[in-house]
Structure prediction request, 152 residues.
Amino acid sequence: MIELKEVTEENFYEVIQLKVSDDQEKSRFVAPNVRSLAECWLYRKNEDVFPYAVYNGDEVVGFLLLDLDAEESEYMIWRMMVDAKYQGKGYGRQIVEAVMEMARNDEDYDVLIADYVDGNAVMKYVLESLGFERTGFDEEYNEVLMKLDVRK
Ligand SMILES: CC(=O)SCCNC(=O)CCNC(=O)[C@H](O)C(C)(C)COP(=O)(O)OP(=O)(O)OC[C@H]1O[C@@H](n2cnc3c(N)ncnc32)[C@H](O)[C@@H]1OP(=O)(O)O
Prediction:
């Protein structure tokens, strides 16, 4: 079972050392975690971006970046990744399920969105199998836009 914990001084180095596979990196499925953390600093005044270290027991196995849009009542999985050596063990699915639970427990929010780069078969499968539906395609970023109504 995974656990989401705030990124702190304690786990920061582990988080930035996490890596996806070479193929996933070449396909640009996700930005490096160090960039995501830099973006958290950039947008810190908005107070709506939340980076998490994903733990399995004492080990940091992945990273999650949430972006909350209160006006649109939307939770967004901006970025998520599982280190290449921990992939295929169910952690990716558990991350999405954990965010679904957070959004459901937050009465101000109705919708969860997550966009993936076209060709990311694992992310497509995980989101579709959890009930997300395709709402469009972003030509600029080559991303499939996915949405889940968490109130249904
Ligand atoms: C919003 C965004 O951030 S989109 C970007 C997401 N991040 C990335 O793509 C970065 C690189 N990839 C990763 O970090 C990981 O592969 C993740 C996060 C996408 C998935 O994490 P994992 O821990 O490997 O996933 P998990 O073990 O939960 O398996 C997911 C499912 O995909 C299935 N799967 C594996 N390979 C494939 C494939 N090629 N095609 C379709 N499904 C597949 C698995 O069988 C599993 O199915 P199940 O849940 O029914 O058993």
